[in-house]
Amino acid sequence: MAGAAAARLDHAASDGHRDGRLHRDALRAGVGGSRPGAGRGRTRGRRDRGRGGVGGIAVALLARLGHNVTAISGRAAIHDYLRDLGARQVVGRDALPVGKARPLESERWGGAVDTVGGDLLAALLPTMAYNTTVACCGNAGGIELRTTVFPFILRAVALVGVESVLCPAERRRHAWSRLARDLPLDALDRMTQTVPLADAPRLSAEILAGRVRGRVVVDVNRC
Ligand SMILES: NC(=O)c1ccc[n+]([C@@H]2O[C@H](COP(=O)([O-])OP(=O)(O)OC[C@H]3O[C@@H](n4cnc5c(N)ncnc54)[C@H](OP(=O)(O)O)[C@@H]3O)[C@@H](O)[C@H]2O)c1
What we know:
This protein is α/β, with parallel strands linked by helices. Helices cover 30% and strands 18% of the residues. It contains 8 helices and 9 strands. It has helices spanning 23-29, 53-64, 79-85, 118-124, 150-153, 169-182, 185-190, 200-208, and strands at residues 4-8, 46-49, 69-72, 89-91, 109-114, 133-136, 158-161, 192-196, 215-219. The strands form 2 sheets. It has a 6-stranded mixed sheet, sandwiched between helices. Strand 6, helix 5 and strand 7 form a beta-alpha-beta unit. The structure holds NADP nicotinamide-adenine-dinucleotide phosphate. Residues 1-3, 30, 50-55, 73-75, 93, 115-116, 120, 137-141, 162-164, 210 line the site of NADP nicotinamide-adenine-dinucleotide phosphate.
């Protein structure tokens, strides 16, 4: 994906269980790295990057937990891919009142994960339902946030920051156990490609041009 994944109001909870994730899976999920001294362990040898990796993982996780997930993406070419990851609906960015949101809009979402920030997040907040949460974890669309306090003080919407570099070890372990349980490995397979180091220059251009989806793991031990 996809800039943002939002769970619609009519979600149903379910549980799932799966164990035995590997460090390789951490890299593919984009949560394998840490700054020295910040958490336990340190990623060596590979870096990952790809268009929409965080949003795609949010879609797969929320769908696995039984939520009715809507993915928001500006690329029609990846809509089927997002459905395959578990989105029941995929809509364009114009499904939100980007750049023209009123302080409060009709309530649409029961929760949201935003990787974009900027105008898209500003359009998301007034469309959140009462007493819901938006996880703010990226700035792909901008670092500024022009909004009003109304979603917070009239609808009890919570805007929660997500940070994965200085995250303490104990919280990291908890997140890991949830990923091991809730992230379907087949979804991770579908959103990941592994390439040798020699492909990095070509892929850099492809990523900047928005032609790569999901995660790319660059294996620096393969040339
Ligand atoms: N908080 C943390 O700990 C943490 C951890 C990892 C990553 N991040 C951040 O999370 C964000 C997402 O990471 P990623 O690897 O998935 O990044 P990405 O590859 O840049 O993808 C972000 C997606 O945002 C959408 N987008 C880009 N520019 C946009 C714009 N101007 N308006 C609306 N949508 C736009 C695109 O989706 P479509 O093409 O589908 O529209 C793009 O695929 C990044 O900002 C990254 O730095 C944060």
